[in-house]
């Protein structure tokens, strides 16, 4: 079984064991995801970019926990909506490749609808 | 290869083809993740919980795209930090199970450090 | 003095007394704002809309604290950028009124570029 | 009238003219706030801290618009909850000063419950 499938099953079981399904509307799960993302981003808020590239072991453990929380709510949300994440990613990558042709955006962080510098 | 591994490889290639690695510090990727999560949550902001459970095909397609964007930045962030997402989720689930024992939190949305109602 | 001005002065003093100005780049303040917004949104994630309209005194106190944190970082960010919040709001309201003409959007939550139902 | 009061009145009128009050539960407004914060943080995601301190006029105009959107939803949320923002900020500043005594946190970005370096 794929790892996203495994996470989905584990999250389903965890939720069912606590009878939390009534709380897990897509709306609510999107909010929970936003809350966890806020915790993740706050880990990096006072770090320089260089510091963020070489976290201490404790910072790394915190980041791993927050990444896990975001991943679990993302899986739960996709599951509630009947969306397969791997397929959604494959589809979006095709769109992104059209939006950002490699030869026009090399080394540039501009938005796809901004003019080249 | 697992699907999270496949996404990691695809995101790495996409980034490398555009020479975007210098922008992809963990700090910046955490911000990009927050931005995409904001787009995802905004899809649900004016919907009732019931409406969020039965999206129109167009809303569902938008949600799939935003879920994909969140997933891709999450994978990119974990990759930059050298964190394996599947392992991080497995570890965090053990912690969550200790924080929220099933018999004490059944049907309750209270926080682990709040008293029972 | 206006109340946004007063908050600005108070935040400046608080920051200066701790010599935190080097951390307060606009980039970092935007991240801190995202983190606090995440805490605010998480207060509401498992509540129904009806419950969110009648918070308990404790929930209300938590919401007030998080609203204050968001307000302080928003003021700090605007201050670092030299943006006057009251003017920015006045300008944006004019744009929003053009984007959402009252007679075309009455009672509708659709986006300005979506067709009427 | 104070400027936060003025914004509150303007937001109330804007909302009433479009009959949008039914959408404006605190839960929904917290989500809208998270969405706008996501847009604000995304403006800074690929900028260095130095670049974020010297925005181009166009970037500055975008930032002003997003700051305005965040401010308006924050005011709307506080209004729905019956929370006075200026008072909430004053109260929270007292708590923050106790959490972060100036002499112990000078020049340090550590969290209040982390040990000094």
From TrEMBL, chains A, B, C, D:
CDD domains: NTP-PPase_RS21-C6_like (cd11537). It comes from the Bacteria. Pfam families: MazG-like. This is Nucleotide pyrophosphohydrolase. The lineage of its organism: Bacteria, Pseudomonadati, Pseudomonadota, Betaproteobacteria, Burkholderiales.
């Amino acid at each position: 079984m794929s790892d996203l499938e495994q996470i989905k099953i584990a999250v389903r079981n965890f939720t069912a064991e606590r009878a939390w399904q009534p709380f897990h509307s897509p709306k609510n799960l999107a909010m929970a995801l936003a809350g966890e993302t806020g915790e993740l981003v706050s880990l990096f808020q006072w770090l320089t970019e260089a510091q963020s590239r070489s976290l201490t072991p404790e910072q790394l453990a915190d980041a791993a926990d927050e990444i896990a929380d975001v991943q679990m709510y993302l899986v739960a949300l996709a599951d509630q909506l009947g969306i397969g994440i791997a397929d959604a990613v494959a589809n979006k990558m095709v769109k992104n490749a059209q939006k950002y042709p490699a030869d026009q955006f090399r080394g540039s962080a501009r938005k796809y609808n901004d003019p080249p510098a």
